[in-house]
Amino acid sequence: MATDPDHTFDVIVIGLGPGGEHVAGTLAERGQRVLGIDNRLVGGECPYWGCIPSKMMIRAADALAEARRVDGLAGTVGEVTPDWSAVATRIRDEATDDWDDRVAVDRLTGKGASFVRGTGTIAGPGRVDVDGTTYTAARGIVVNTGTKAAIPPVEGLAGTPYWTNHEIIEAKELPGSLVVLGGGAIGCELGQAVARFGVEVTIVEAGERILAHEEPAASDVLRKALEADGVTVREGVGATRVTHDGSTFTVTLADGSSLSSDQLLVAAGRHADPAAVGLDRVGVAKDSRTAAVDDRCRVADGVWAVGDITGKGAFTHVSMYQAGVVIRDVLGDDGPPAEYAALPRVTFTDPEVGAVGLTEAQARDQLSNVKVGVTPLGETTRGWIARADGLIKVVADADRGVLVGATVVGPAGGEVLGALAVAVHGQVPVDRMRAMIYAYPTLHRGIEDALGRLA
Ligand SMILES: Cc1cc2nc3c(=O)[nH]c(=O)nc-3n(C[C@H](O)[C@H](O)[C@H](O)COP(=O)(O)OP(=O)(O)OC[C@H]3O[C@@H](n4cnc5c(N)ncnc54)[C@H](O)[C@@H]3O)c2cc1C
Ligand SMILES: NC(=O)c1ccc[n+]([C@@H]2O[C@H](COP(=O)([O-])OP(=O)(O)OC[C@H]3O[C@@H](n4cnc5c(N)ncnc54)[C@H](O)[C@@H]3O)[C@@H](O)[C@H]2O)c1
């Protein structure tokens, strides 16, 4: 690997997730002497064990579901026979190069950055240790070390061969049955995808509902959709004990019931560890679960953080957005500070759950005059034609006359969301949105109805 012989750089990036890779490559292209460090694969979780391979799984699972919809709509297709090997091969060949990051490393070094594979730790201001070697950063250090699957303290779990997102994405074969601990984005997306390949799936959600961060109505639609795919959804009950007898998992739940399955997927949230990368040496509390950043993504003088570790939203688009902010700040370029009021997120289940900004409950906590409007998708012409279950919900700050949040649950919900993300980000007056022409018959036309129902 190319390393600078004198171990002195302008900027050192520890952890090369999507944002870190972007910071390192761009600053190198802009003439900075940059060292990028990663102890696994350049690009991080997203391309190898996250967004991209999981969306390949979902694309394939959606194709199966769509084929099954031919019956009663367009004729008969007979038995649809799923074959997971097509997905496993595509993930290996097209997404991950069999978990080899040579292309990404070459791309980074091709931009002029140096790269070291190893574990970086901040030794003090401007100093980074990588497995015994100290490197110096004249301008600063950028931390993008991301998260790992959080393993909940359930009795017996640690001693079992459970899966996290890594193992399920690397799986060449699927189990006959799967219990998923956690009904967040990962549990719902992957649970539904493999259920469509014939796996008997049970999602166990300790909180009161799946997708708890989103509108309750979104959880309701998704629960029904999962159940229609044969997924059993257990909400409001956590696991208390896990055992494995060599072939079968037994998961005991808090209500005394138990579940047996061939495999167990832990999708119970993510865990960042700022102290593990030495951020405690530059002022972050040792037991802090995130690295708090200001609106320039600064953690301390000469130290920036981007991505999941900042706690601003564990999404690739947040990591990349923050990377842009850091690049400008390091170079002293003009540009807006980081703002998160219009944070979009999409859970790629079928139907998709897209949301931006505040939910109704969050808005009511923060604002005194909140109005909401909801359009069931079945009341839009296109939703009715498509027999789509879902909704469009808008949340307005009635004092300012702008939307502060919105949710779209439905086919291509993440795409329909785009228009609402623009509205929330741009603080487009509701009156102006009402005066817009909405193409017929689109799903996004439901936005007009929802605005009309703001009450
Ligand atoms: C199954 C799954 C599906 C997802 N789907 C989506 C999606 O559809 N859309 C979306 O926006 N987000 C999705 N995410 C989230 C997304 O993957 C992350 O938000 C994204 O990867 C950004 O993370 P990050 O930039 O913080 O760094 P990460 O991607 O977590 O990368 C951090 C890198 O730092 C390395 N590292 C850690 N510590 C050190 C150290 N001390 N020294 C050197 N290297 C170190 C790690 O090995 C890793 O390579 C998904 C996540 C999962 C798990
Ligand atoms: N489409 C996307 O953008 C996408 C997809 C996947 C992941 N992600 C990102 O990754 C993050 C992590 O995903 P996640 O689904 O692991 O986390 P999550 O925090 O979204 O959901 C985890 C769920 O597990 C539950 N839980 C915790 N301990 C449990 C236990 N012992 N038993 C049963 N349930 C338990 C929690 O109540 C929570 O609802 C997401 O929040 C998101 O930011 C994004």
TrEMBL record:
Quick check: keyword Flavoprotein in the entry? yes
Among its keywords, does the record have Hydrolase? no
Q: Which InterPro entries match?
A: FAD/NAD-bd_sf (IPR036188), FAD/NAD-binding_dom (IPR023753), FAD/NAD-linked_Rdtase_dimer_sf (IPR016156), Pyr_nuc-diS_OxRdtase (IPR001100), Pyr_nucl-diS_OxRdtase_dimer (IPR004099)
Give cofactor(s), names only: FAD
What keywords does the record list, in alphabetical order?
FAD, Flavoprotein, Oxidoreductase
EC number(s) on file? 1.-.-.-
Query: Which molecular function GO terms apply here?
Result: oxidoreductase activity
**Known Pfam families for this protein?**
Pyr_redox_2, Pyr_redox_dim
The record's top EC class is oxidoreductase
Where on the tree of life does the source sit, at the highest rank?
A: Bacteria
Q: Where is the FAD/NAD(P)-binding domain?
A: 9-323
Pyridine nucleotide-disulphide oxidoreductase dimerisation domain residues: 344-449
Q: What does the similarity note say?
A: Belongs to the class-I pyridine nucleotide-disulfide oxidoreductase family.
Name listed for the protein in its UniProt record: Dihydrolipoyl dehydrogenase family protein
Q: Which organism is it from?
A: Terrabacter terrigena
